[in-house]
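Please go through the sequence and fold tokens given here and tell me how the chain folds. Record follows.
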Amino acid sequence: QDQYIGIPLLVRNCKTKWWDNFNDEKYDSKYLDNFFNKNPRLCKSAALDQTTAKFLQAKSIASAMLAQAKTKKEYIKLMFEMLNSLDSESEDEKSSASSIKTVDLADDTTSVTITRTKKK
């Protein structure tokens, strides 16, 4: 016997032909780029300007490099290398001011003093 006696069961069968008629070949990357440029409100996030994108990429690379350090000496060496590369790539090379910064390496007994001199 049927175990669902007394409980009405409603079933409806539907057929849809929409997917057969959908032509996805015309929606290539150029079409989508054009569409989202015309409708920026539909994008989840606004596109970053070139300067911000480069900064975020450099920040990510620096974090990854520092995460590779296994000892404090390696960590300090990587920090100095990054500071030197920042000095050589600095956009603000007109100033010759120095800055002194003390970095605590999460240890009460160890700290490092870093002096940066911007090139002319």
Q: What stands out?
A: The two ends are 93 Å apart (CA to CA). The helical segments are 18-21, 29-38, 50-68, 72-89. The CA atoms of residues 1 and 26 lie 54 Å apart.
